[in-house]
Amino acid sequence: MNVSLSVSSVILLCWTAILIPGLMLLSKHRYTIPSFFLFIYAFVAGIPAALLAGMYNTALREHTQLKFFKSGPYYQILSYGVGPGLGEEFWKMISAFTLLIVLLHVGYRLFRHEAVFLFATTAMSFGVVENLFVYSGLPPGNLFSRSLLPLPFHTCLGFLQGIGVATAIRQRSVVRIFYFYFLCAFLHTLYDSFSILMALLVHLCYPDAVILWGGDVQYTVSLLGTGAQIVLVCFLFVIGAIMWLRIDETEELLPVPTANWDDEGGTLQ
Asked: I need a surface site. Which of 43, 162, 191, 248 has the fewest CB within 10 A?
């Protein structure tokens, strides 16, 4: 692989990694100054998350019956649930949450939307590392689609995790964190299992089908699965954009205690 091809592959795999955070920053910072250091911190936090998730998935494939692509449909769905679902979302969330705790511990002043941005960027970085290390050898069309679908999908799930953590901090409720974690794990499992679910659906509706729409059944199932993934990503992207625009950029993540004037004693409480 020559240098120009390597550069083009990186661009095809990661172009949305520039577009998405750029749109998030441009659409939010009217009264506050964006912290580019926060973006760098969050992006770096996604790297160990991707490496740990890769080790976790490898251990599942080598030491359990969860073989992903080499087992029956139900085992594959279970593999996606335990691996990419519960596993990858755990490592993304724990990495972003650790960074959040460190920043708060050193006195970093965070706004609520910045915490959400932190989680979204960490998840996006996870997707970038996954693309570069696992899928860089694919044809150009596949490289482009990896940046068009999985990368925004990872970012949307990280965004939801950030919403969950920010809400949990504001409401002082740990339950919200677990709720959004399992929601993201379910959505990730669903995304990866769409082709399998479509194959089961086609087999249920057309048990003796060999050719559909003038093509092979496998090709039809692949189209249906990809179409379902596109619908899910677009839905999450629209919902995320609406939630992002509704966040007050002047609202701090940790509420600042306000002083109350005691009218009777004339002192501050």
From this structure: 248
Q: How far is CA 22 from CA 38, 112, 135, in A?
A: 13, 18, 24
Query: Using CA atoms, how far apart are residues 165 and 171, in angstroms rounded to an integer?
Result: 10
Question: Judging by beta carbons within 10 Å of its beta carbon (0-12, 13-18, 19+), is residue 132 exposed, middle or buried?
Answer: middle
Residues found in the chain:
269
Residue 215 lies in a domain: yes
Q: What is the pTM of this model?
A: 0.87
Please tell me the distance from the alpha carbon of residue 128 to that of residue 85, in angstroms, as a whole number: 18
Count of domains observed in the chain: 1
What region, left, alpha or beta, does residue 266 occupy, with left being phi > 0 and alpha being psi -120 to 50 degrees?
left
Do the beta carbons of residue 163 and residue 243 sit within 8 Å? Answer: yes
Query: CA torsion 210→215→219→222, rounded to 10°?
Result: -100
Flag whether 171 is in a domain.
Answer: yes
Write the pLDDT tens digit of every residue in 230-254.
999 999 999 999 999 999 888 999 8
The CB density around residue 68, as the number of other CB atoms within 10 Å, is 15
- Those residues of the chain that have pLDDT short of 70 are 1-5, 67-71, 207-217, 256-269
